[in-house]
Specification:
Elements lengths: L4 E7 L8 E7 L7 E10 L2 H7 L16 E9 L11 E4 L30 E5 L3 E3 L6 H4 L2 H14 L8 E4 L4 H12 L3 E6 L2 H9 L4 E4 L5 H8 L5 E6 L3 H8 L2 E9 L13 H6 L3 E4 L5 H14 L5 E6 L3 H10 L5 E5 L1
Parallel strand pairs: 8-9, 8-11, 9-10, 11-12, 12-13, 14-15
Antiparallel strand pairs: 1-2, 3-4, 3-6, 3-15, 4-5, 5-7
Helix pairs in contact: 3-4
Length: 341
């Protein structure tokens, strides 16, 4: 490497997007067991808007480089690295310490883009165990959409809910997690029902393979979902609406359904009354916090075998990162907002 510096973006203050500013930093070098990644693309998630408000666990710390999603090429390796090589095309895992099994307290605290520097920079040093080669049919931009939203959808469907072919899935909204849930569940042979309030989005969801779409502004939408699932309700619910939708979602559940809590867009507090349907219908409710390295590997194998491609809404250049954030904050994106270097 000939360069001695790199460009990056970092939060200089919170509360508005203009607190994100471009800067120059020394080029990092990999130590033993580490790799130097030349980042080629990033994507944004709802959590990145939370970061803009200072709502992630950063304790008011400024100077943090944002974004957990990134894909790039390994350009240098440290001593002892053997599982990857210079030239490999890789993504970074969401939890750098969580390799397999259940999430433990010692796995948290190194989440890219909130606890430690993320990937909205030209180069990043990561542990060898924190990167994975991605399927050859994907571009850097497509691969960059996977580490957070796609792994979350995978964990919700298959790790926490053990989705089986022929079962019916309900996923709320048309955000990135729901779009990945739609693609993954359909590829696994499941039926998928989605919710939205937009006729235009409903049509796009059907074009992507949704078996049915309901309008979540209709007070009786859980009953509509039950009617669309032969009156018995759905087997798996990917609940990403938060407190405002959680209790309604339970009203669409079949006996013994599995409910995966993956998002809190509408807040942390539900209006109450959630214990009765859980008890009467013998429901299983599980929390989803993205997934481990092993979960990410399983997702990547599935995507490679099915030749799946993510839905990309828009692409922005590295120097127009604020444009990407503005698009994400608009609420109008359908698919992933991507930054290409």
């Amino acid at each position: 490497m000939n360069a001695s510096t790199m460009k990056c973006w970092s939060w200089q203050r919170f509360g508005s997007l203009d607190g994100l500013q471009q800067a120059t930093r020394p080029l990092p070098r990999p130590g033993p067991g580490e790799v130097l990644l030349r980042v080629h693309a990033n994507s944004l998630n709802q959590r990145d808007l939370m970061a803009a408000r200072g709502a992630l666990p950063r304790n008011g710390q400024t100077g943090v480089v944002p974004l957990c999603d990134g894909a790039g090429e390994i350009v240098e390796i440290g001593e002892g690295v053997g599982s990857v090589a210079v030239g490999d095309r890789v993504i970074a895992t969401f939890f750098q310490r969580w390799l397999a099994g259940a999430l433990q307290p010692e796995h948290v605290g190194t989440t890219l883009g909130s606890d430690v520097d993320g990937l909205l920079r030209e180069y990043a040093v990561l542990p060898e165990s924190g990167v994975l080669r991605f399927p050859a049919h994907l571009s850097f931009a497509e691969a960059a959409t996977l580490p957070c939203a796609a792994v979350t959808a995978w964990s919700a469907l298959f790790v926490k809910s053990a989705l089986q072919p022929g079962e019916t899935v309900l996923s709320l909204g048309s955000g990135s997690v729901s779009l990945f849930a739609l693609q993954l569940a359909k590829a696994a042979g499941a039926r998928v029902i989605l919710s939205t309030s937009s006729d235009a989005r409903a049509e796009r969801l059907r074009q992507l393979g949704a078996d049915a779409v309901v309008n979540y502004r209709d007070a009786d939408w859980p009953q509509q979902v039950r009617a669309l699932s032969a009156g018995k309700g759905v087997d798996v619910i990917v609940e990403n609406g938060g407190g405002a939708s959680y209790v309604q979602s339970l009203g669409a559940a079949a006996w013994h359904a599995r409910v995966a809590i993956v998002g809190l867009i509408s807040g942390f507090v539900d209006p109450g009354g959630s214990l009765m349907p859980i008890l009467l219908n013998d429901l299983t409710v599980r929390a989803v916090q993205v997934g481990s390295r092993a979960d990410t590997e399983a997702l990547l194998r599935f995507i490679a075998n099915r030749q799946l491609r993510p839905v990309i809404d828009s692409r922005f250049g590295f120097d127009d990162a604020l444009g990407a954030y503005t698009r994400m904050a608009s609420g109008e994106a359908f698919g992933k907002v991507v930054i290409e270097h």
